[in-house]
Amino acid sequence: MSYIKEISLKESRLCFELDSKSIALWSKNQWDSEFSKKEVKGLAIFYLKEIIGVCVFQVVIDEAQINYFAISHRFLRKGFGSRLLNSVIKKCKELNLKKLSLEVSEKNKAANAFYDCFNFKTVGKRKKYYNNEDDALLKEKILKK
Q1: Which domains are assigned to the chain?
Q2: Which of 17, 24, 41, 144 has the highest count of CB atoms within 10 angstroms of its CB?
């Protein structure tokens, strides 16, 4: 019923459509640009044949930065986000990466609790980082020492 697979530029339209209906973070051009970078990796979770979640991360030497993570509103709190993030963590370990990091709004309590369940630790804060002037928490997960 559901499956996870690596995605690339050819799925950017599907990613844009999901993004438009969820957190509306990137334009279609931004999606295309992101997937055009060789160090960017993407994983998506599909239910039947519909894309319901996406994670895009960028590898820099021996670390990865999650640039985008979203699950369709219809599929929140059903375990799909956990499956996707577990797959991202597994992929990072396969790539021998030492650390996985991300930024999340300090006000997004649900997302912060979600990442805390995966042992992401808050290591810093970016003041007024978002367009609405919310602060961003910097979180990281150590994958190996």
Answers
A1: 2-142 (3.40.630.30)
A2: 41
